[in-house]
Amino acid sequence: MMFFNVQFIFIIYLVLFHMYIIGNAFASANCRQAEYRVGEDCCPACPAGMYVKQHCTEFTGTSCRPCTEGTYQDDINGQEQCYSCTNCNAGLGLKVKKVCTPTSDALCENLDGYFCIDYNRGGCIAAQRHMVCSPGQYISQRGTADKDTECLQCTDGTYSNGTSSSCQPHTTCESVGRKQIQPGSDSTDSECGEHDVNTGLVAVIITGLILVIILAIILTVLRKKISGKC
Questions:
Q1: DSSP 3-state of 15
Q2: Which residue numbers delimit the TNFR-Cys domain (predicted)?
């Protein structure tokens, strides 16, 4: 009978011991919101803008230190170092939109002449230079901070060097009294030579004939008036 009681007490002891171990493990794995776990213990977390210099012990609390320049922590934490601030690299088409502080990371935006191709947390993290239209094309839509430049090809009879918002019609050399030396392309205007000598000569002859006719009419009218008086 005594042997049975000893066995029963031993079983109860084992059950209680296991419950204690499980309870401690469960408590250690589920620290409160303002705490973090170190091994099987929970330590008070450091506030935003600070990091853990030394973990808590049975007799001391967590030792926290402020983030150094160029680093940040944006939440309560149990980290042993702060995060490095994002670098808004001008060589990658980025500039600072919001400076980095001990409690928040920097935010970047695209430089002029670039458009953003990837965003994160309200900032641009990757940018690309706007497309440059080629000769023979015109700018149908100028690039913005969110969109690339759009280029379209010039139609027949027009040209552009790629920097204008429309294509220009080729010059018709004959219409300005000149001979065409080189026809226009989609990127260059027609090339005209010197004024056509024959065209100029014809214009002079016609002008001279008109003046002679006018003079002859004037002389005829004057003779009639003089004859009538006589």
A1: helix
A2: 66-108
**pTM flag (> 0.70):** no
Query: Which is more confidently placed, 10 or 171?
Result: 171
Helix and strand counts by DSSP (H, E) for the chain: 2, 16
Which pairs with CB-CB distance under 8 Å and at least 24 residues apart come from 197-202? none
With CA atoms as reference, report the closest residue to 46 among 128, 102, 126: 102
Quick check: helix, strand or coil at residue 227?
Answer: helix
Residue 16 has pLDDT above 90, yes or no: no
Distance of CA 45 to the CA centre of its chain: 39
Residues in the chain: 230
Residue 87 and residue 126: Cα distance in Å, rounded?
12
pLDDT in tens, 145-156: 999 999 999 999
